[in-house]
Sequence to fold (150 residues):
Amino acid sequence: MAHSFTPAPIVYVSRKETFSASHRLFNPQLSQEENEFLFGKCTNPNGHGHNYRVKITLRGKQDHKTSMVMHLGKLTKHLKSVIDPLDHKNLDLDIPHFKNVISTTENVSIYIWKEMQKLLPTGVLYEVKVSSTDKNSFTYRGESQGDHQG
Ligand SMILES: [Zn+2]
Fold:
């Protein structure tokens, strides 16, 4: 008797949350002139702020009992536990991760990915997307390539 094989549908589930924070783009290994050349007004010594929008996407099979990939309340709780500590903070001064990591939105998206990975079942996190303005967004999917520069 052969089993009939029904492939399980793969569904993508997303949740958006926001936080507000200040920061400054500055590489301490470079001179003030080089920082100004590379980062422009984003290296202003007293910093500036953003209303960050974060969109998390999970990818997975439906649970047998609930038909959900993950309960949205649970996903929201995990996401808020990662981004609430960033809210109304200075990323560079208040968040230890950014003491030695430049707080570009690229690095903010990687940070959120790593923190979410600690909370979610293995293999379910698909994408972290962070917007710091209406015109820009930064997407991290856990991919790496070549040498890491820090
Ligand atoms: Zn900025």
